[in-house]
Specification:
The structure is a single chain. The chain is of the alpha/beta class and about 140 residues long. It has a single domain (about 1-130), classed as Rossmann fold, CATH 3.40.50.1010. Helix content is about 55%, strand content about 10%. The protein has helices at about 10-15, 20-30, 40-55, 60-75, 85-100, 100-115, 125-130; strands at about 1-5, 35-40, 75-80, 120. Strands 3-2-1-4 form a four-stranded parallel beta sheet. Helix 5 (about 85-100) crosses helix 6 (about 100-115). The N and C termini lie close together (about 10 Å). The model has no long low-confidence stretch (mean pLDDT about 90).
Length: about 140
C-alpha cells in the first residue's frame, strides 16, 4: 500500500465544485490502495475551509456537516501532534525557510518524516516539496 501525505486543499477539492481538481480525483477513487496521512491540524483546517465556503455562500451549513461526516469515514491516518520540541522547531524552521504558514509546514514535516509523497494544491507548499526533493505525485 502506498503512503502519501495529502493536504486539506486536495481533500476539499473533492467536495467543493469550484475547487475541483481532476489531477487528484484518482486518489479519491483509489483510497483502498493508498494510506493517507495528515497532521493533527487537518480536522481544524477542514472545518475552517468549510466555514469559509459557507460564509462566502458557496456551501450550505447542512452540506458542510455532511462533508465532515463523509471525511470522518475515510481511511485517513491523523498523525499525532509533534509534541517534541525539536519537531516544532523543524516545522518553525521550515515555515520560515520556505515562506510557508506553520500549518503548511506541518504537512511538509510529516511528508519528510514518513518519506512519503506530498500531494497539495498549494503552490508555495508544492515548491518547498520540490526543493526538498519530495515526490509530489503518487
Amino acid at each position: 500500500m502506498k503512503q502519501v501525505v495529502i493536504d486539506a486543499s486536495v481533500i476539499a477539492s473533492w467536495f467543493l465544485p469550484d475547487e475541483a481538481d481532476e489531477n487528484h480525483e484518482d486518489i479519491l477513487n483509489n483510497m483502498t490502495k493508498i494510506k493517507i496521512h495528515v497532521p493533527s491540524i487537518f480536522e481544524h483546517e477542514m472545518m475552517n475551509i468549510l466555514l469559509n465556503a459557507q460564509r462566502a455562500k458557496r456551501l450550505q451549513a447542512s452540506t458542510s456537516i455532511e462533508i465532515l461526516e463523509t471525511i470522518s469515514r475515510y481511511p485517513i491516518s491523523i498523525e499525532p501532534s509533534t509534541a517534541v520540541l525539536m519537531d516544532h522547531i523543524n516545522v518553525f524552521e521550515m515555515a520560515r525557510a520556505y515562506h510557508l504558514t506553520a500549518y503548511d509546514a506541518a504537512y511538509l514535516e510529516l511528508a519528510l518524516r514518513l518519506n512519503a509523497p506530498l500531494i497539495t494544491n498549494d503552490k508555495p507548499l508544492l515548491e518547498a516539496a520540490k526543493i526538498l526533493k519530495l515526490k509530489t505525485t503518487i
